[in-house]
Amino acid sequence: MEAHHTDRLVARDLTQVYGDGPFATRALDGVGLIVEPGESVAIMGPSGSGKTTLLHVLAGILTPTSGSVGWRGADLATLPDTDRTRLRRTDFGFVFQSGRLLPELPAVENAALPLMLAGVPRASAVAIARAELGRLGLGGLEERRPGELSGGQAQRVAIARALVGHPGVIFADEPTGALDQTTGQEVLSVLTAAAAANGASLVIVTHDAGVARHCTRTVTMRDGRIVREHVAAPRTVPGGAL
Ligand SMILES: Nc1ncnc2c1ncn2[C@@H]1O[C@H](COP(=O)(O)OP(=O)(O)OP(=O)(O)O)[C@@H](O)[C@H]1O
């Protein structure tokens, strides 16, 4: 599906305060961020700087204390819970550090799950999931359960699951955190390539500067604020004008 200009995710002046009184933590302190269609944004910063909180607010998992998150004409910050949950299922995909696959289901059913939750008939959902697993290099492993896959393979199943519904944005929280360096790089290449091929934007929380290098933009957080933004230089062809 082609990206529309409304597929821009626009967060304005977000604050998130956990708890109250002397125990209050201001996890987000006036954050603004625009994610353009097809863009990949890495969110970096020290532990406790608010990265996961920001991801959860952008994805409509968490309602911020104040501020707005505009997406396709809606404001996720004020949308009623049921609408927000529905929108999250249809418009967004998620990849977490440990995959969070259901251990008792084969890979293909894990990948098909979001479609089945959205009401797609089982046979079609499984066929779409099978094709997506094939594109991600997992042909032949469709019937394996997560415990019978390597960490990198399991994470590819999680990526397939994030992609099957053709989301506008994929959110990933430390997607390579549990993998060794080489496998992590492979999984990341798969994730960024698949998001681009699907026209989906990508928002990744990571501690790994190697991950950030795969993204078009990096924002750095500190104490609940974005303190730095870095846009990747366009790739140039060595030695020549093309
Ligand atoms: N549910 C919660 N209740 C209270 N405080 C919380 C909660 N979740 C996060 N915090 C606090 O909010 C701040 C930001 O947390 P957050 O998890 O967003 O940071 P982070 O940058 O993702 O950290 P890390 O890199 O360690 O995962 C921290 O001070 C944290 O202790």
From TrEMBL:
MF GO annotations: ATP binding; ATP hydrolysis activity; transmembrane transporter activity
Record flagged with keyword Nucleotide-binding: yes
One GO location term (cellular component): membrane protein complex
Alphabetical list of Pfam families matching this protein: ABC_tran
Domain ABC transporter: start-end pairs: 9-240
InterPro entries attached to this UniProt entry: AAA+_ATPase (IPR003593), ABC_transporter-like_ATP-bd (IPR003439), ABC_transporter-like_CS (IPR017871), ABC_transpr_LolD-like (IPR015854), MacB-like_ATP-bd (IPR017911), P-loop_NTPase (IPR027417)
Keywords, ordered alphabetically: ATP-binding, Nucleotide-binding, Transport
Record Gene3D superfamilies: P-loop containing nucleotide triphosphate hydrolases
Record bears the keyword tRNA-binding: no
Family annotation (PANTHER family): ABC TRANSPORTER RELATED, IMPORT ATP-BINDING PROTEIN
Protein name, entry field: Putative ABC transport system ATP-binding protein
Source organism (scientific name): Flavimobilis soli
Upper taxonomic lineage: Bacteria, Bacillati, Actinomycetota, Actinomycetes, Micrococcales
